[in-house]
Design a protein that fits this description.
single chain; alpha/beta; Rossmann fold; 7-stranded mixed β-sheet; 11 helices; about 45% helix
Length: about 300
């Protein structure tokens, strides 16, 4: 079952796979442009009046601030679980200078980039550390609030992540999780099944949890006031752009060549061809409502 409890060896191997994936990702100069590092490499949150991707990406950062009810006049400690290059925490740390942000990531390269950008932006109320959100090296009740933006999906055991965040949160502390989740059974045809597996492998993902599973994990970890908000429509423009321009169009071009020369192709080969962009299948899963993008908030009892 996706998101189910793993063995220790599975955790170790998956962590290494995630590290390698992001080490490779951030070594690509295409990904290390100033905007991605400064404002965030995550989905943009499109709302009324927002039509530019850059504005939508910043709006996602602001949205997290709204979910956590951050205030400039209330000093608090904020935990960023799976911070990546720290863009969201750095963005919010400038907007809420009385708050202190601590982000952790498995990937050494990401923490180096986060710290480098922090120094360049003269940010003193944020820190970034190499760490594992299934084994957080902070005492109980260390933080007032926490968020995980597109990071929980990389955990083999989502339950362990929620349990650890609950431990380091103070009573009454608020948690916001923004990520992709399963909503229905996966398609049964072999093509889509294979494409889904290739997608997970390409992104070093162990699998998506369902919204129902996350609610269960939160409840068992002592969270109350659990609220689920469907953001799929707010991020669909991200999928349309990357899915069509980076996956579908190249696929159609390739298929035209294959048909012209009457070349037969196995199902698994065709599926892997789609997944060169790793976005078109996600677009299909999203539009057929097999998966969705959600914001889940909860309060520690």
């Amino acid at each position: 079952m996706l998101g189910g409890p793993p063995t220790n060896s599975a955790i170790s191997s998956k962590e290494e796979e995630v590290r390698n994936y992001y080490d490779s990702f951030w070594s690509n100069k295409t990904h290390t442009n100033q905007f991605y590092l400064s404002d965030g490499f995550h989905f943009g949150f499109f709302e009324k009046g927002i039509i530019k991707l850059e504005v939508a990406i910043r709006n996602m950062n602001d949205f997290i601030g709204r979910l956590l009810c951050l205030r400039s006049d209330l000093p608090q400690k904020i935990f960023d679980a799976g911070c990546g290059v720290g863009a969201t925490s750095r963005y919010l740390s400038k907007k809420f200078p009385q708050n202190h942000f601590t982000g952790i990531s498995l990937t050494f390269n990401e923490i180096e980039l986060a710290t480098k950008m922090q120094k360049e932006q003269n940010i003193i109320n944020a820190e970034f550390l190499v760490g594992n959100y299934t084994d957080i090296k902070f005492p109980d009740n260390s933080f007032d609030k926490a968020f995980a933006l597109e990071s929980v999906s990389y955990a083999v055991s989502k339950k362990d992540v929620v349990s650890e965040i609950s431990r380091v949160l103070k009573p009454g502390g608020k948690l916001a999780i923004i990520d992709g989740f399963l909503t229905k059974d996966l398609p049964l045809n072999s093509f889509m099944q294979h494409a889904y597996i290739v997608d997970l492998k390409k992104r070093a993902l162990p699998g998506y949890a369902s919204v129902q599973e996350m609610r269960m994990y939160l409840e068992s970890a002592g969270f109350i006031d659990i609220t689920v908000r469907d953001l799929t429509k707010n991020i669909i423009f991200n999928y349309l752009f990357t899915g069509f321009f980076y996956s579908l169009f190249p696929l159609l071009f390739s298929e035209m060549k294959r048909l012209i020369f009457w070349r037969k192709e196995k199902t698994d080969v065709a599926a892997e061809k789609i997944m060169k962009g790793a976005d078109f299948v996600e677009l299909l899963l999203g539009t057929t409502r097999k998966t969705g993008y959600y914001a889940i908030t909860a309060t520690k009892k």
